[in-house]
Amino acid sequence: MSWERRYPLITAAGHVGGDHQVSEAYDARWVRQLPDGRWSVVTRTFYIAASDGATVMLEQTEYVVCTDPGDPGSTEVVSGAAYALVPSRPLDEAGVQDAAREAAAPTADEWNNAMPGWRVAW
Predict the structure, then answer these.
(1) Is the whole-model pTM more than 0.85?
(2) Of 55, 73, 86, 104, which alpha carbon lies 20 to 30 A from 95's?
(3) What is the DSSP letter of 83?
(4) Which residues contact 116 (CB under 8 A, 6 or more apart)?
């Protein structure tokens, strides 16, 4: 079983980056059913942030186990998150949208490392 990209390919995510976020955020989402029937959901959100004089693009990846992949926030069982700098992208709205559109699908290794108690099958 593989990760299924949800449509639309990107969605406006609003203000998710706290006080440092200075752009609209956009995200991409994938789902995959877990062996126990619950769902794993990976959402990659991109936005521009400014802090201490530096402006950068950030990727916030949220890992969620839920019972309804159409409404992961309301049916969440457990979640985790990771953050990363996004290099070599224009620091504007088009760059943020492109980063979300071109985001890499999660892998089983990535999920299993981020959420070790909720492993997905290879």
Answers:
(1) yes
(2) 73
(3) E
(4) none
